[in-house]
Amino acid sequence: MTVEWRGKPVWIVNRTPEMIERTEALEVDRLADPDSSVPQQPAYIEGYMRSIKPEIGVLVGICTHLGCSPLFKPEPDAEGVGTTNWPGGFFCPCHGSRFDLAGRVFTNVPAPTNLVVPPYRFDSDEIIVVGEDKETA
Ligand code: FES
């Protein structure tokens, strides 16, 4: 689902165990910043899924190249993503940037950094508050 935060689209992505496995199995040399060294996420976001709960992704849906909105292409080897051995993720049709299901950018694409993870927290198992976290609540 897509919600809006500060005028930007924010994707809430339900990631299945199989999607998480595919993301974990991705060869890190295919990614430009596999460990999220560039601060594109709050400090409390850790791990390869870049989220509080691995099964729930929260990502700003704006390409870090020039701001287009990438397409959700979760299925392996989806068509129209311009590559083979696709593990599922997000594809930006404007200039061909690719991101995995955690929003980590692939190498050799125009986008320089991973997708942004906004501040967020869980109010309950079913309610996510975007724009607030433990520190600001
Ligand atoms: S805006 Fe996404 S690749 Fe250029």
UniProtKB/TrEMBL annotation:
Keywords: 2Fe-2S, Disulfide bond, Electron transport, Iron, Iron-sulfur, Membrane, Metal-binding, Transmembrane, Transmembrane helix, Transport
One Pfam family cited in the UniProt record for this chain: Rieske
Entry membrane topology: Single-pass membrane protein
Cofactor needs: [2Fe-2S] cluster
Compartments, record wording: Membrane
Reactions that this protein is recorded to catalyse: a quinol + 2 Fe(III)-[cytochrome c](out) = a quinone + 2 Fe(II)-[cytochrome c](out) + 2 H(+)(out)
Annotated ranges, domain Rieske: 23-129
UniProt-listed Enzyme Commission number(s): 7.1.1.8
Major location category of this protein: membrane
Matching Gene3D superfamilies: Rieske [2Fe-2S] iron-sulphur domain (2.102.10.10)
Cofactor: binding details: Binds 1 [2Fe-2S] cluster per subunit.
Highest taxon of the lineage: Bacteria
Note from the entry: The Rieske protein is a high potential 2Fe-2S protein.
Subunit structure: The main subunits of complex b-c1 are: cytochrome b, cytochrome c1 and the Rieske protein.
Annotated protein name in UniProt: Ubiquinol-cytochrome c reductase iron-sulfur subunit
